Amino acid sequence: MSNPVPPQVLPYKLNWTYAITIVLVHVLGLLAFVPYLFSWTAFVVFVVCIHIFGQGITIGYHRLLTHRSFKCPKWVERVFAILGICSMEDTPARWVTVHRMHHVHSDEIPDPHSPRVTFWWSHMGWLMFINRQTYSVASLEKFSKDLLRDPFYLRLETNPFKQFVYIAGQVPAFFLLGFGASFLFSSELPAAVQLGWSMVQWGVIMRVIAVWHITWSVNSLSHMFGYANYATGEDSRNNWLVALLSVGEGWHNNHHEDPSAASVQHRWWELDLSYYEIKFLELLGLASDVIPPRHRRQGHGVKRERQEVLPVAHPADETGISEDVLA
User: Fold this and answer.
1) Angle separating helix axes 74-86 and 151-158, nearest 10 degrees
2) Which domain holds residue 300?
3) Does a structural domain hold residue 1?
4) Backbone dihedral region for residue 59 (phi beyond 0: left; psi -120 to 50: alpha; all else: beta)
5) Could you tell me if residue 169 is inside a domain?
6) Which of 8, 223, 236, 305 could form a disulfide with 256 if both were Cys (CB 3.0 to 4.6 A apart)?
7) Stretch 320-327: mean pLDDT, rounded?
């Protein structure tokens, strides 16, 4: 089945801010081939930061802010939100708006990023063109009213360029991290400068690119390839590769079956590290009201026959949040 692009995209109008940013960051990523900008220390930081900053999207933007699958103190929420902002995937309210809209219209024509258009469209093409609905005032008020009640998120929407304070601040922070760490092993200034710039290249630029493509793969690959535990009425799939890279998000059919749950692990081997981290926060007293999967809430398990597709009996629960949150 194929869909046209959402009507609000036509006539095509390039989103210059997004398009230039995406292209520029990828061009800067090519500097990773410059030997001067590589160090194994920076590469290790790159791998670790994919997880840390990626959880700003997975745990922060997605499971906390979009689906309200657990509660936490405001300062913890702010930390996750800032990590998400530093991943350069837009302001929290805009990200939440698009994702809630996706759940309501998943793989239908209004879906902002369905691969029924093309793979490229769902992966990143939808970001390149202005969709007159996704970031409209009406859509923000409809889908992210709960966030906009918070002055922190409202300030980011009234002046979206404020997010660049956090984004740009990463460059000196990572440079100084590498510059300072160098003096633990050597007092040579050139070595400190070299490690500082390699930290910027790998800890910021390459990490942003990696988190981008991991997140985008949930929109594209996890709606194209994999298996389905549930008949959800759209194309969501459980994709083990995306689940591995995104520490759980690739069990996407499970998520579309039960979007309000903090966990997407419905079979023992569908490991969801993000859920375990949320439970660890709960153990530390930094998370509460963690919503388990529906089959646990209802006191029964999921049948293990891999071929069986279980029907969804709750179509009203599309966004994974209660109506009183958006009221």
Assistant:
1) 30
2) 7-326
3) no
4) alpha
5) yes
6) 236
7) 54
